[in-house]
């Protein structure tokens, strides 16, 4: 329960560095592909370049067409292929039995009454990969209605003939606003989880694109956490090593695999968090301070600087020769609350092995954190 007598944190202006700029180049495209559903063979890759003898794209047909894709008309998905990144845009249409002159009316009607195409790229970087979204969406719609299909423009991405224009940083604010509208004050518990380096798994029925964007934004907040993006049950071995990751899936069976995640987030209908960790059960709660922080306009850049402001503050306190105490004013200087965020800060200090820092509120030193001990000292 929130104590109405607690002081609210003053909403401070952000003084943040610009972490993503228009000078950052879009990633180089290393492969292009088109995936589709075949009634006889299931998900297949109908076209790829370089050809499979030069680059193996095993499993991409399942990542580019997530489970449940046949229920939506269009979607997009980010995924991983080894140490590379993928982006695919899919479109679906029902097949008519009447010959109206369109390509869809002449497709074999054995394809279960629908046609689906997913057009994608493989790149070495996730930064600015969003710049390819409009192109891939347009190509997917074109291929859905084109017979025979001509892949020249898609091939052009490999030779940089048809590179998209660089993204303005403002596009990230546009996409971030969609993220903010979907999650509201829950972005702050999510930020706490990613800064603590937890294993975070989102679940949603298709479409999955907006959840992929959530994975992207949270990864930018703590880039030491492995962004797996979309995963299926076939990717379960990737989660065996217990290392921090953030991912999303359309397969609800993952909820039963609780040893493979720290927090499972169901994004269908009402967003719900599930965890067996008693500490995290407190940290994932939305506080009054979280809601107050939304009263101030938050941009993508100010969001991904949350971690930078925290690490700078703790680094300064840790290296201080006169004062190791983190006071109420220190909490407020980074828009945190000395009561609601105290457990989060103590966990952050412990997990990241930050020496010397003492949390002190109203003159009372609560506990120093030992970087080589799993529990607070009670000196």
Q: Give the helices and strands as they follow along the chain.
A: EEHEEEHHHHEHEEEEHHHHEHHEE
In percent, how much strand structure appears in the residues? Answer: 15-25%
Number of helices: 12
Structural shape:
elongated
Instruction: List low-pLDDT spans.
Output: 1-5, 100-110, 363-379
How far is the first residue's CA from the last residue's CA? 30 Å
Cross-sheet strand order for the largest sheet = 2-1-5-4-3
**SSE-based structural type:** alpha/beta
Properties at a glance:
13 strands, elongated, 21% strand, 5-stranded mixed β-sheet, alpha/beta, 5-stranded antiparallel β-sheet, 379 residues, disordered N terminus
What does this molecule look like?
By secondary structure, the chain is of the alpha/beta class. Helices cover 27% and strands 21% of the residues. The protein is built from 12 helices and 13 strands. The relative contact order is 0.12.
């Amino acid at each position: 329960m929130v104590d109405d007598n607690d002081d609210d944190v003053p909403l401070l202006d952000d003084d943040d560095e610009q972490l993503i700029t228009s000078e950052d180049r879009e990633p180089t495209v290393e492969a292009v592909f088109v995936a589709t559903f075949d009634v006889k063979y299931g998900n297949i890759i109908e076209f790829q370049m370089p050809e499979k003898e030069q680059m193996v794209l095993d499993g991409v047909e399942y990542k580019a067409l997530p489970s449940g894709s046949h229920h939506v008309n269009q979607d997009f998905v980010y995924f991983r292929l080894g140490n590379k990144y993928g982006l695919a845009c899919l479109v679906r249409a029902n097949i008519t039995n009447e010959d109206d002159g369109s390509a869809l009316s002449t497709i074999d009607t054995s394809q279960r009454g629908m046609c689906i195409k997913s057009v994608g790229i493989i790149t070495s970087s996730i930064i600015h990969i969003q710049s390819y979204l409009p192109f891939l969406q347009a190509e997917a719609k074109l291929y859905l209605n084109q017979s025979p299909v001509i892949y020249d423009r898609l091939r052009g991405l490999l030779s940089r003939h048809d590179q998209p224009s660089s993204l303005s940083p403002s596009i990230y604010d546009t996409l971030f606003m969609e993220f903010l509208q979907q999650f509201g004050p829950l972005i702050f518990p999510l930020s706490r989880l990613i800064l603590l380096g937890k294993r975070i798994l989102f679940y949603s029925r298709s479409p999955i694109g907006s959840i992929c964007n959530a994975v992207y934004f949270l990864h930018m907040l703590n880039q030491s956490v492995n962004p797996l993006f979309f995963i299926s049950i076939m990717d379960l071995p990737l989660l065996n090593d217990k290392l921090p990751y953030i991912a999303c899936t359309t397969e609800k069976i993952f909820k039963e695999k609780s040893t493979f995640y720290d927090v499972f987030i169901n994004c269908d209908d009402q967003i719900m968090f599930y965890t067996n960790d008693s500490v995290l059960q407190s940290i994932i709660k939305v506080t009054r301070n979280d809601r107050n922080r939304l009263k101030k306009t938050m941009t993508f850049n100010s969001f991904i600087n949350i971690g930078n402001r925290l690490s700078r503050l703790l680094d300064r306190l840790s290296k201080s020769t006169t004062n190791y105490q983190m006071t109420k004013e220190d909490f407020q200087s980074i828009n945190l609350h000395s009561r609601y965020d105290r457990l989060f800060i103590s966990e952050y200090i412990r997990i990241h092995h930050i020496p010397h820092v003492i949390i002190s509120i109203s003159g009372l030193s609560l506990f120093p954190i030992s970087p080589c001990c799993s529990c607070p000292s009670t000196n």
